[in-house]
Each structure stands twice: as C-alpha cells, then as structure tokens.
Amino acid sequence: MLSALDRQHTVAPPGYSRWLIPPAALSVHLCIGQAYATSVYKNSLIAHFDVSQTAIGIIFSIAIVMLGLSAALGGTWVESNGPRKAMFVSAVFWASGFLVAALGIATKQLWLVYFGYGFLGGIGLGIGYISPVSTLIKWFPDRPGLATGLAIMGFGGGALIASPLSRQLMSFYDSGYDPNNAASVADGHALVLLFVTLGVLYFIIMMFGVVNVRVPAEGWKPEGFDPATVAAKPLVTTANVSAANAIKTPSFWLLWTVLFCNVTAGIGILEQASPMIQDFFREGGTSTVTVAAAGGFVGVLSLFNMAGRFVWSSTSDVVGRKPIYMLYLGGGMVLYTLVATVGSAATALFVVMTGVILSFYGGGFATVPAYLRDLFGTFQVGAIHGRLLTAWSAAGVAGPLIINGFLDAQGKPGTLTAEAYRPALFTMVGVLAVGFVANLLIRPVAEKYHEEHGQELLEGSPR
After folding, report:
1. What are the percentages of helix, strand and coil residues in the chain, rounded to 5?
2. Whole-number Å distance between alpha carbons of 199 and 197
3. CA separation for the pair 62, 349 (Å, rounded)
4. What backbone torsions phi and psi does residue 203 show, to the nearest 5 degrees?
C-alpha cells in the first residue's frame, strides 16, 4: 500500500487537468494553516499552565522554527520522492503533534506541548508547506504566481476555519466557557478534547490531497505555452541552478533577508491578534471589543492574509516580483507607522490597516516560490524554497519575541492599551526598511552557478 505513495505512481495520465492540483494542495495548506489560529486559545493555555505570554508564545515559535528547518533539510527529499509521499508524511507529523500536545495539556507538562505541537507539528508544517509548491510551478509554468497563490492562500486562510471552529469546540467541551466573556477561559479538559478533535479531523482532510495529487509527465507543457514569453521578463532565467549552488549566490541571501523582514513584521500581529485589538480599544480597564469580536478579527485577518496570497502573487505575474516586494515592504512601513500613531482612533480603521499589512505578509509567502523560479529555474526549486524558509524560522522567533517582550514589560494581559504596542510597531518599521533595501539589491544569478546541459534531467537529484 505504501508503494502507492512513490513518485512513479503519481505521474498524471494524458489529458489530466492541471486545475485538479490546486485543490489537492489546498486541502493540505488549509489544515496546516491552523497555526495562525493559536491566539484564539492562547489565554486559555496561559491560565491552564499559569505561565507568561512569552512561555506560551514559545510554542508557536518552536513550530515555525521546525517548519523552516524541516523544509530546508527535507526539501531535496521532497523533490526526489514526490508530493504524495511528502503530503502523507506531513499529515502523520501534523496529527501526531496535536495528540502529543493534548497529552501535555492533560498532564500539565508544558514541555510535551512544546514537543508535540511545536516540534512534531512543526515538522508536519514544513514538509506540508513545500510539498505541493514545486509541483504547482511545473503544472503552471505560464502563471507560477497564480498557481502558488492558489495553494498557499490556503495556509493563510486556515485560521478562517480554525478560529471559529476552535471557539465552538471549546464552548461545546466546557459549558463554563463563554466566548463572549473577556474573562472566560476554557478548562484543561476542553483543551485536551479540542486538540484531539483537531488532530483527527485534519488528518482525514489532508488525506484528500494525498489521494488526488499528481505530477506532470516528463516534457509536458500547457497547450499554446511558449517559454520564450516568460524568459523575456526581467530577472527571469532559462537556466537552472541546483539547491547546493543556490545558497552560494548573493541573490539567495538577499531574498532570504527580504522574506525574514516581511515575515517578522507580520507574524508579530498574527501571534497576538486576538488580544491586540482588545488592548487597542480599552477604556477604563474594559475593552470595547468583546472576545467573540476579537476572534472574528482573527478570521478577518485570515481573509486578508488569504486574499493577499492570491491577489498579490497573481499580480506579480504581470508587474514582476521585485516591484511587488517593493509594495509589500514600502507599504508595510507606512501602514505600521499609521497603526502606531492613529490605529486606536477607530476600530474600522485599525482592522483595515492591519488587514492590508497581513495581505502583504501573505502575498510575500505566495510570491517567493515564483521569485525563486525566476532566479534559479525549475530544477530544484522546491529544495531551494525549503532552504529559504529558514528565514521564516528566524522570523518565527524574532516577531513574537519583539511583540511579547515589549508587552511583558508593559504589564499583564488584559490591562494593556495601544500605547504599550508602539515601541514594537516602530521596531517593525525599521525591520521592513532593511528588507526594502535588500530587495533593491537583488540581481540575476551569475552564469558560473548554472547547471550544465543535461545535469538537471533527473529532477531532484543531488549534484
């Protein structure tokens, strides 16, 4: 049965529609995108373990670190073994992470939650995230930004499903939990059942992607597609660069810096989203934003995150990758400054500004695989993408540490105001400025790093 997961058994037959591939990829990304909904039950975990915001925030940081490391170390393996086996491995690790974390909650062993959701779940995140990307680029050589945006928008939209689902499950499992009461937190028993339910449910959904994903046959190309029309665009190469050579180029590390800065700026808001909107509109110790509304805000951010991954990455097929990143980083600098200075003036203004920031954040993720394809070709683009995602790992530590570090110094959760967030927000403006400069410096890859003709015939083979 396991042989059905091998790459040779996933080659698409003649006439297979490439539009069946994005839904398969989407089923995986929607599930692992649950990582963006951790803020919904963050306060319940703080209360259950009686620890600081930073101690619980570390769970999310470990998961993102492992995402980057597993993507980097497993990228070449994913290329050579194909998307079906990679998706299956991802599902096993992702589901196991929830179950081990549930055991940690039940026994009040926080290190088990770190190991489960953080370490094991993070491996599932990394393998699952990169598993369909190379395949999508090969199915859509004419529109790589659109293709990766279709799948990766699922990762940004995962919280749109997970956020309300988690609140409803906690309410169902704990009759004393009131989603509309700011002081209400779910008990440990409800959290255990929540994690078990999500683990089982996500495994089943991810199997849909495992069964339906295919790779194109050798030499396949879309009807009417002329590669010369793509190669004529700025920064787009017709050559190929191996993963081993890619990390030796200045362009790789400049793009690594770009992704790190863009992610650091957005991830801090995502990890703190639910409490943040309540704190920005706190009057006399009481927030005008209810817990339910704050949970809804997480869902709205997910919509912007998801839409940005599709809209901005598709736009990059027209305007180019470098100009679109100038928008992400430059526009982000302006918006972060506005959030810090006038964000508390009106709830709608705050939601719109943070939403656009999150659309740039999501767009950056969806556009980067196409940026890599433009610079390094299709030979080992999945493995190169995996190595680049170590920037996400670093940002997963830096972003929450910046936000939580400033907030822990300002006071206890539930008592903070907009003023407490300003130092962190202005810090993010500086981070984005560094990324803006790095993007301007990206140049085409020198010919000495290109693969010689014929070396790239065996996709995913080590050089």
Report:
1. 75, 0, 25
2. 5
3. 33
4. -60, -40
C-alpha angle 387/116/386, rounded to 5°? Answer: 10
Q: Of the candidates 203, 218, 220, 207, which has an alpha carbon nearest to the alpha carbon of residue 5? A: 207
Q: How far apart are CA 212 and CA 45, in angstroms?
A: 36
Pairing of strands 282-283, 286-287: antiparallel
DSSP string spanning 386-453?
Answer: HHHTHHHHHHHHHHHHHHHHHHHHH--TTS--GGGGHHHHHHHHHHHHHHHHHHHT--PPPGGGSPPT
Yes or no: say if 46 and 53 are a contact pair by the CB < 8 Å rule.
Answer: yes
291, 56 Cβ separation under 8 angstroms: no
Q: Tokens in use for 220?
A: 């396949």
Render pLDDT for 36-73 as a digit per residue (tens, 0 to 9).
788 788 889 999 999 988 899 899 889 988 988 899 89
- Give the predicted TM-score (pTM) of the model: 0.83
Q: pLDDT tens digits for 399-423?
A: 888 888 888 777 666 667 788 888 8
**By three-state DSSP, how is residue 11 classified?**
strand
Measured on CA atoms in the order 172, 176, 179, 180, is the torsion positive or negative? positive
| DSSP of 118-133 | IIIHHHHHHHHHHTTH
